[in-house]
Amino acid sequence: MSRLRASHRSRTAARAAPAGLGIALLVAAPATAQITGSNLLQARVGVDPYDPRLDVPDNRYTLFDQFHLDYDHASLQLGFRFEHYDASEDGSLGYSEFVQRYAVWRDRGLSVRVGNFHALLGRGLLLRAFELPGVVREEQFRQYGYLRDMDGASVEFRHGTFEAVVLSGKPRRADEPPETERSGLASGAQASMRVVPGLELGAEYLRFDAQNGGPTTEVPGGFAQIAFEPWLAKMGLESVTLGAYVEYAEAMGLDPATSIATGVDPDEGRGTYVATDLSIPLIGPHLHAGASWEYKDYRNLLLPGGINEPPTLVREHTYALLNRSTHVLEPAQEEGSQFETRFDWRRRVDLTLNWSRAENADTRRFREFFAELAAHRGALGLSLFYDESEDGSTIPPVFDRRTLGTHALLPFHPEHSVELEVERMEGTRDLSTGDIDFTDEYASLTYAWASHLSLTAAYTRTDDPGDPGAGEPDPATGVYPRHDFASLGLSVRVSSQHEVLAFWGQRRGGIACTAGTCYLVPAFDGVSVQLSSRF
Amino acid sequence: MRHPPAKPCGLVAAALILLFVTPPAASETEPKGKSSLADVLASLSLPDLDGKKVELDTLLGSGPVILDFWATWCKPCLMAMPELQELHVDLAARGLRVVGINEDGPRNAPKVRPFLTANGYTFPVLLDLNREAQQRLHANALPTTIVLDKNGVVLHSSFGYRPGEFEKLRALLEPHLAPKPNE
Question: Looking at the predicted complex, does its ipTM rise above 0.90?
């Protein structure tokens, strides 16, 4: 902590500059300039019931604020993001940091950026620097925005169908506090071009220098994106679309220690990703269909600094119990595939089917089958789903997991509606002491008034031994205690610019997934109020 | 053990004051002295489902624009889609452009077109693979809906979706649409 405080002090001067810039932008903006921004303020009173610290008060108070401002004038963009955090029980946990500041100049296909930036090479096998807007991470008793950006410079150029990017910067890991010094330097480039109608080819390269005496990793790769429509049209299938994406990369100079841990030869670092999608607007009377198939083979693709994020090929679910039970990708060694197909009849009935599988090291494996049948007429909707899965990579491993649920949307007035969701999951955990069956149940009821507010009551019950607060089993029966989580949520649209979210009750801890990225959320018992604004 | 909570930081208070003194993005009928988002849109280009880059400022000029940030895994986003499609079908001829900005990212990108085709959604969708547009337009929740006039001035913006919301947008859009064909 003292190292963090020292670092904090040493950058006071650096913080003053963007602060001055922000004030200058606000008071001296030319008439033609655009100032846009957003703010997220979250205040909470409550505790993580499983917080291991002994001296945490039961009225623990935390305050998090994230303020983001952009200034645009002609070809120039300037911006910064500021974060503040306070925790009542320990002043040393608090921070106030400019977590991003940047300047961008754009003109005629050329874009030069200095400061913090996001980047994506290919589909993320080599590099993905990004953020999850609106997501607040909780790590080591602190909160901060989900940022995995770079601090450096990038140049992008585009002319016709040719595109190129060259970049270099220090990456930040999403689980690191904002004031932590970034380590390592990632430099890379990508060029792509549409060589003939329907075919785009690209080459990419990444170099990561650990800058601490560690190895320098190099990852060259290439990709191709193919749209088969021109050929399908010649066959008289104008309305059918078929696309494919293929990417391959090899990694060299990986850390041998990592390779020993995964049991994979450091010279064998490589990744293959293939995706296809097929859309058929009409395959019979009133029947429409679409399908996608993906394949992955990642070996030693866990790049240093956590700078990459290859596609997971695992379905991201809208249902509460399934969303938190997802398989977490292991880029160090994982091979697998995913197939999803969707049918629609008369725009009234939809059927979605998904099969996913993955093989990891040590014969661990993941399997999932998901089916959903949905019917809707106007705003009225009813859906039923069934899911079965096993995952040897979770801790502890889970198998024979079956989930059944339903969701109903019942409008009873043009502006008023009620939403009901009920889910039940049964499964077996493979513990060192033997197999233990568990049950999860979830129910929520939401009332919504269009453009004004919604009120949700949610209830979850579990005896899953894999839960963060599972507790100890009954010595006689081996059964784990049952935990209940009840909460009320209120969402109010204060104006076109401001939305207030309030939460009161218990939140279950575990994995949460947002936009394809999963992270751990601690349990919480208390009250939280959040104000989200954009202007 | 109980103790008094920490005092909020002055900087946060200043940020709050700034937020609430900022004039609303628009009145319900007409923007008053608001600058346009045209320059912000000009800085953004996103691939469509065929991989062709679309400059977002080219969406402006002919009529109002609805930008809807959505994802295939986002339940309220999916609940909003039929209402968006209805607006697109009813008002495209009068100049309205409904544009979906998909936030599925690399993880779910191959599922987007099959989803749209199977469900019969015909409004254009752009892929925001690395969330650049989401960040630039401060769409910090899904779904986020931003309604612009033909010059890029924000007429309305909102986080989240509640059934019946887009029906209420029709009144807001009406003054910005071309006259009905029989008028």
Answer: no
